[in-house]
Amino acid sequence: MTTEAQSVAAKLKSSGLLRSQALIGGKWVDSYDGKTIKVYNPATGEVITDVACMGGKETNDAISSAYDAFSSWSKLTAAERSKCLRKWYDLIMAHKEELGELMTLEQGKPLKEAIGEVSYGAGFIEFSAEEAKRIYGDIIPSPLADRRLFVLKQPVGVVGAITPWNFPLAMITRKVGPALACGCTVVIKPSELTPLTALAAAELSLQAGIPPGVVNVVMGNASDIGDALLASPQVRKLTFTGSTIVGKKLMAGAAATVKKVSLELGGNAPCIIFDDADIEVALKGALATKFRNTGQTCVCANRILVQEGIYEKFANAFAKAVQSMKVGDGFSEGVEQGPLINEAAVKKVESFVEDATSKGAKVLVGGKRHSLGMTFYEPTVVTGVNSEMLLSREEVFGPVAPLLKFKTEEDAIHMANDTNAGLAAYIFSTNIQRAWRVTEALEYGIVGVNEGLVSTEVAPFGGVKQSGLGREGSKYGLDEYLEMKYVCLGSMS
């Protein structure tokens, strides 16, 4: 590794946060057959470390561990669970720099952005600690004088949580925080590309006093781990963030044991910029939502729809701003964009840009691999994009901003909704009536109005149509980990 990467790795190892084993039943264990997988630094291609590569057997043991721990964890008072979560939050925040460095090392995002994710991710633990004490039931007025009707909310049971590589901490905490607050126990399967942040967070959960078996982490063979989680009748809930294709397979597999399922799947976010928008606000918002995490987020603006009256003006200003973005290793000062996660991601971006240009689109800025090599790709702006191009139909999941022209408000709404996805959408307009009309007409679970960064632990995050089921974050996110029990109490005289 480079000197800087070696220094970071050595510091993390000495702090006990650089883990390479899985966590099952409160113990750090190797895979049963001794297999390992390499974790790479995407900025350099160098190996950070080898981690245990696990499959069905280890996952079943993790499930058993979580199932055994459920009986005691679920019986703790909400106040006791809240205290454990609060300690976990405090430890994450106390180690936010180290966790940010670890995230940059294995995922590639700029260090400032990584540390920001740690604070954002920790927010889900803090919010869950607070909401644990506010899981209320209900009393229903009975139609009969000798009966009393109650609704209890109880934890669903063992939860399988499958998370992606693009947000190695936040995608875990926004699932695990509410699960634990409700009294559930968890088996986490982080991405094999970025398991180190998950393992560090799990280490801190032990230090926080969360009992053994409540939090388990297994990584390795994705299909074997997923199959074990689906097949086990002890796993009563599956929560997944990732591609729509995989989400559909998990949803089908969960049918055999009729598990509860939450799915946060792919998006195709439109960013609609009307000709009455404040150009500076629209530029700032579009840049933030498009190029955050090198365009590798499910709520990134995948299509930027610009009204014809300001199309040229906006395109030129946007291209100028994109051209000035600094690309580089996430540890370098002032870097705004890091590498893509791997070679496959770069090839996908290249194929989408090639498809667009072959059909008449024009590259204003970028459009090729960066001179830094590896998996760096130039921040790119493409004009003349239409609905027949891949850039319009599918998520590019990279630093490519396609600009599409529209005439009327009705055209914009039609273009925005012309997709199977429905996760996030963005509107830029100074007309309040228009903003409300379009917001209500958009078929999306999240809408940002004159704002490009919409994610927060206090609001419900999730989509409609084929972007998923359920919500994460906010008080509504806790309901995903609870069952309602109706109690009819008759006369005892």
Automatic annotation (TrEMBL):
Its EC number is 1.2.1.24. Keywords: Mitochondrion, NAD, Oxidoreductase. Homotetramer. Pathway: Amino-acid degradation; 4-aminobutanoate degradation. The active site is at residue 264. It comes from the Eukaryota. It catalyses: succinate semialdehyde + NAD(+) + H2O = succinate + NADH + 2 H(+). This is Succinate-semialdehyde dehydrogenase. GO terms for molecular function: succinate-semialdehyde dehydrogenase (NAD+) activity. Residues 28-487 form the Aldehyde dehydrogenase domain. It comes from Nicotiana tabacum. One of its GO terms (cellular component) is mitochondrion. InterPro entries: Ald_DH/histidinol_DH (IPR016161), Ald_DH_C (IPR016163), Ald_DH_CS_CYS (IPR016160), Ald_DH_CS_GLU (IPR029510), Ald_DH_N (IPR016162), Aldehyde_DH_dom (IPR015590), Aldehyde_DH_Superfamily (IPR050740), Succ_semiAld_DH (IPR010102). GO terms for biological process: gamma-aminobutyric acid catabolic process. It is found in: Mitochondrion. Pfam families: Aldedh. SUPFAM superfamilies: ALDH-like (SSF53720). Belongs to the aldehyde dehydrogenase family.
